[in-house]
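Re: that backbone. Tokens:
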């Protein structure tokens, strides 16, 4: 699994009582967990798999842009 350097956004989902992490630079890439740590670990795994799949399909990877571009 490759470590990624993409921005993550974490928030609490009151309805499901879980933390959700989105990786906005990777369309559709999000994960969740019962704790922040678990959610972040799952998001890192999801981002890594997203990148690996994109590379295998020959897609161009977005460059990590850093904080607040989506704010």
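Recovered sequence:
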């Amino acid at each position: 699994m490759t470590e990624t350097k993409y921005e993550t956004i974490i928030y609490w989902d009151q309805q499901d009582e879980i933390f959700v992490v989105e990786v906005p630079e990777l369309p559709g890439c999000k994960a969740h967990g019962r704790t922040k740590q678990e959610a972040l670990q799952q998001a890192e795994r999801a981002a890594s798999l997203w990148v690996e799949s994109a590379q295998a399909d020959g897609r161009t990877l977005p460059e990590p842009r850093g904080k607040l571009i989506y704010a």
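The chain has one helix and three strands. Residues 9-56 form one domain.
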